[in-house]
């Protein structure tokens, strides 16, 4: 799905299309491999052209979920240099977010592409000597790191869903990644006016203060605040933290509160991989009812030596 979204983004850009050759009436953008130069669908010249490949992999820490590799192919007869096309690709892809076009927001997958490096190359077998009339083939390889933002919706009461709803309610200009109420566009980019926030569930531990009706947990969450500039990104971080501190709690989907116990701000953290806000919240989960109970629990506890028969009845 991501490959089709990326191909449509590149082919629909008029500036990039003006730099590339055409194949069957479309800009020369291909997945993995381009057709041979002898294909009749080419409209001469058949260079420059672009091909790309997606290499996805599993990463439990979601540091890097995959790599996008784009190869730019040019010849000595091309009007544009690989660096010109590479600069346009950076403008289009670097910092872009790609969301699968699912109709249900809770299963929509979002992936961010961040530029890693660019390397020039000369194609082997190209005409590099004066003994051949073949044009020289050269180009540039542009690599992007892909980081996924998977939905983290679980069971009720869901603390992540509660944090998403809280963000929707108080900050309507923020795009919440992997939320439940809005489907994100196929290709979009966070801005200073409309940043993006992704709430990630790091983990939880059981609280030793348990009650008959409620089991208490201390959850750790990270907020990834993504904007265009550092100045506005820090402003949004400050606004989010201050609002949580003022409220002191976040209402979960079952109308129970999650108490904000500790909030930490890390401005130096990577907004894509790590997240700048760490939140520790205490929330409760209703305990399951007992399946059976003793009819004479007090007598049996106080007078254990009376050999009283303790009868058990199943709950209807």
Quick summary:
This protein is an alpha+beta fold and 316 residues long. The protein has helices at residues 2-12, 14-19, 82-93, 159-170, 230-247, 297-302; strands spanning 22-23, 26-27, 29-31, 42-43, 49-56, 66-75, 96-99, 110-122, 137-149, 175-176, 187-188, 196-206, 214-226, 249-251, 257-265, 277-286, 292-294, 312-314.
How would you explain this protein's 3D organization?
This protein has 316 residues and is an alpha+beta fold. It has two domains: 2-149, STM4215-like; 159-286, STM4215-like (2-Layer Sandwich). Helices cover 21% and strands 36% of the residues. The chain has helices at residues 2-12, 14-19, 82-93, 159-170, 230-247, 297-302; strands at residues 22-23, 26-27, 29-31, 42-43, 49-56, 66-75, 96-99, 110-122, 137-149, 175-176, 187-188, 196-206, 214-226, 249-251, 257-265, 277-286, 292-294, 312-314. Strands 3-5-6-9-8-7-11 form a seven-stranded mixed beta sheet, covered by helices on one side. The chain has a six-stranded mixed beta sheet with strand order 10-12-13-16-15-14. The protein has a three-stranded antiparallel beta sheet with strand order 2-1-4. Strand 14 and strand 15 (257-265) form a beta hairpin. The radius of gyration is 28 Å and the shape is elongated. The chain starts with a helix and ends with a strand. Residues 126-130 and 308-316 have low confidence and may be disordered.
């Amino acid at each position: 799905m991501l490959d089709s979204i990326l191909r449509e983004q590149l082919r629909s850009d008029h500036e990039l299309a003006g730099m590339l050759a055409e194949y069957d009436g479309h800009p020369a953008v291909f997945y993995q491999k381009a057709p041979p130069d002898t294909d009749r669908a080419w409209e001469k010249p058949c260079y420059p052209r672009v091909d790309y490949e997606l290499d996805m992999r599993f990463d439990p820490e979601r540091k890097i979920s995959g790599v996008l590799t784009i190869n730019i192919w040019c010849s000595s007869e091309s009007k544009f240099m690989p660096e010109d096309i590479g600069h346009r690709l950076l403008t289009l892809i670097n910092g872009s977010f790609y969301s699968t076009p699912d109709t249900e927001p809770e299963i929509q997958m979002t992936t961010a592409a961040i530029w890693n490096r660019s390397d020039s190359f000369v194609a082997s077998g190209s005409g590099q000597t004066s003994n051949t009339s073949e044009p020289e083939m050269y180009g540039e390889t542009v690599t992007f790191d892909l980081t996924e933002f998977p939905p983290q919706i679980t069971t009720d009461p869901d603390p992540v869903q509660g944090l998403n709803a809280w963000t929707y309610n108080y900050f309507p200009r923020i795009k919440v990644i992997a939320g439940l109420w809005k489907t994100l566009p196929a290709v979009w980019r966070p801005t200073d006016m409309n940043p993006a926030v992704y709430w990630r569930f790091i983990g939880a531990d059981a609280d030793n203060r348990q009650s008959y009706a409620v089991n208490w947990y201390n959850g750790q969450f990270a907020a990834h605040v993504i904007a265009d500039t550092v100045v506005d990104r820090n402003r949004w971080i400050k606004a989010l933290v201050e609002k949580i501190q003022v409220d002191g709690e976040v209402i979960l989907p079952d109308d129970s509160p999650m108490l904000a116990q500790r909030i930490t701000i890390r401005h130096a953290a990577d907004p894509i991989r790590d997240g700048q806000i760490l939140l520790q919240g205490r929330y409760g989960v209703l305990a399951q009812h007992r399946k059976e109970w003793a009819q004479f629990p007090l007598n049996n506890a106080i007078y254990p030596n009376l050999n009283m028969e303790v009868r058990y009845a199943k709950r209807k």
